[in-house]
Amino acid sequence: MKTKLALGNLVVAFCLFLATQLTAQELGPHFKKIKDGIFTYAEKVNDPNCTIILTQDGVVLIDSGNNPPDSLAVMKAIKQLTPQPVRYLINTEPHSDHTTGHFVFSPPALIVAHQGATDSMKKAFNPKRNEKLMAESPEMRETFKGFRLITPHIEYRDKMSLNVGDRSFELYYLKNVHSESDSAIWLPKERVLFTAASVSVKRFNNLREPGAAITWARELRGVSKTLLTPSIVDAVVQKVNQKRITNSKDLRKLRTILRDPVAKAHFIADEGNIESASLRIAATEKKTKLGFVGELDAAVSAMRSMPWTELEKLKGDSELLKTIDDAKTLLDNLRKTLSS
Ligand SMILES: [Zn+2]
């Protein structure tokens, strides 16, 4: 019995050794090796991905892929990598593009998610999404064979540790990021972090209301194409995701910011915001208008930016009223002189 067990361990160790020798390409298209025994699959950039993590005691998956064809491609790769079963499937979020393929792995896999995922999945489940996909092609229909809605078996609150074989997983609840139950997953030994939908490449991901994305896109399209270089787009996406630009209408200000080299450079920099960049346009304008014109500009902007409370205090101030009358006469005369 003991020798049998030892032999079993040896077989598993050998399989793991072979698995680490496999390259991502040998698993099929769209696989990427992250670390030894960790492979991520995504058909397209920004598609929900699925990650295979091999351990001495079986496979742990992070999400199950965009759709069943993806889940099946992952299942095929797992079979190339190890004879061991998928033991856990950790969900970064409950949306259907992360969970429809659960049935491919579970049972035997136990689904782990943050509290609220089951409710969210049940509420959002729409058989029409699957029917629409199945209508695409007979091949697609085939991949849905055996479909069942598989909701989490384990829901944790705030934080959870999971130890499987030689690997440790730390699950953290991400509040108000994207869905009702977002989880980040950290593998401390391997230093690998799964960020759920809190980070993604060249995409606005913190907009909880999907319709809002159209408004943002429209505003961005209003900015001249020649001004929207890749570094500007990156800066905009980053600042929106960091909630430093919260109103899509603010993007309109980019039309003037990006024409001003100083303001533009400031906006691209890490510390730059729409407001702070706008201030820099004013600063350069002031610098270009020297002498009397500059001073007149300054006086006008001082009048414009006078706070309401300040005005209240000055009500009835006879000296000030006299100064205003003088200024009015002076301005009238000045206008007459300059226009003739
Ligand atoms: Zn989602």
CATH topology of the largest domain, anyone?
Answer: Metallo-beta-lactamase, Chain A
Low-confidence runs: none
Helicity level: 40-55%
Radius of gyration: 30 Å
Written account of the structure:
The N and C termini lie far apart (111 Å). The protein has 3 domains: 2-198, Metallo-beta-lactamase, Chain A; 210-287, no CATH class; 309-340. Helix 12 packs antiparallel against helix 13. The strands form 2 sheets. A 7-stranded mixed sheet has the order 1-2-3-4-5-6-7. The protein has a 4-stranded antiparallel sheet with strand order 8-9-10-11, with no helix packed on it. The chain has helices at 2-21, 24-27, 68-81, 96-99, 102-105, 117-124, 127-134, 138-143, 210-221, 230-241, 254-257, 261-268, 274-288, 291-304, 308-314, 318-339; strands at 31-35, 38-41, 50-55, 58-62, 86-90, 110-114, 154-156, 159-164, 167-174, 182-187, 192-194. By secondary structure, the protein is an alpha/beta fold. It is built from 16 helices and 11 strands. The longest helix is centred in the last third of the chain and has 22 residues, at 318-339. Bound molecules: zinc ion. Zinc ion (ZN) binds next to loops.
